[in-house]
Structures are given as C-alpha cells and as structure tokens.
Amino acid sequence: RETALWMVACLLLASLPRGQLDTTCHAFVGETVVLPCSTTPPGEFTLSKSKLYWQIGTKLVHFFHNGQDSLEGQDEKFHGRTSLFLDQMKHGNLSLKISNVQLWDNAEYSCLYKQTENHPIKKSTIKLNVSAPPRIEEPPSPSEQNQIPSGSPMDVPCLAVLPLSFLLLVPLGLWH
Is the pTM of this model over 0.85? Predict the structure, then answer.
C-alpha cells in the first residue's frame, strides 16, 4: 500500500511543469547507455529505506525499493533492458543502464528518489537522444572491382607518374 502511494506521488511530481534538464545523453540504436542520476548532496544512501523511480511521463521504466528491484509495473518495452548499479547505490549513484537502446527510447526521463521517510522526494531530468547507427558502405564485390569505368579515380595515379618520370630523366641526361 505504501509503495502504491509513493508511486502515485512520483507520478504527480513528474507531471508538474518541467524545469531545466539536468543532462542530455546520446546513443545509437543497439548501444548501451547510462542515464546519470545521483543523490544531492552526494553521500550515503540507505538501500533498505530508500525508493528510486525512473520514468518517462507516466510510464514506469525502473523501480527500486526496500533494497531490491520491483519491476512488476515496468513498461514492457524496457523489460530485461534496464539495470541499476547496485554496488554503487549506497554511495549515491542512482544511474540507470539501458541495454540495446531503441529509437522509441528517445525521451525525457525522470529520476525520482527518496532517501528515507523523513526526506523529501528529489527529481532529476535526463534527455536521451537516440539516433540510427551510421551507415557503413559495403566494399564492392570482386566482380565489381574489375569493372572500373573510364575517368575513374583509378586513372589518376597513372597521370601523376608522367611529371615524376620527366624530372628523373632530365638530370640523367636522357632527355634532349
């Protein structure tokens, strides 16, 4: 019941007018990206008493409370692709790792956390820009390599040899 109330509070907080972005991250489709979030001020984070909620608008991306992940309500597009740095959380690193980034991951993420019941909910906003990977041109097949059209760059080195051979022949006295 307490978890449900806290999740509602996070949704309400996330729906408030947006302030400045804390960070913008960039990734290509298929890559792994880390969205940064840390406690302010940095310091000890009591895992068993804390709550961490990553979301896009009202979509749950990752939820952590009572010292463990709680992903029952996680948006299915993120299933199996998100993780936290559990060994670093106690030191205030609340960053989210998203594996196999997809174009639909392009969004503004909110990191909401509460260290203990007595602390206020804190929010950080991170924009993730996702791009398609750059196209890599395939080298021509061996049959295409033999078909060099006239006037292609392959003719240029032959032209560059003429002035060089002329310069070598003059000092040798072979050119009259």
Answer: no
- For residue 116, which phi and psi values (nearest 5 degrees)? -150, 175
Per-residue pLDDT of the chain (176 residues), as tens digits, is 555 544 554 444 444 444 456 899 999 999 999 999 998 776 677 888 889 999 999 999 999 998 999 999 999 999 999 999 999 998 899 999 999 999 999 999 999 998 877 888 899 999 999 999 877 777 766 665 555 444 444 433 333 333 444 444 444 454 44
Q: Which domains does the chain have, with CATH numbers?
A: 41-133 (2.60.40.10)
DSSP string, the chain: -HHHHHHHHHHHHHTSPP---SEEEEEETT--EEE--B-SS-----GGG-EEEEEETTEEEEEEETTEE--TT--GGGTTTEEE-HHHHTTTB--EEE-S--GGG-EEEEEEEESSTTSPPEEEEEEEEEEPPPP-PPPPPHHHHT-PPTTSGGGHHHHHHHHHHHHHHTTTT---
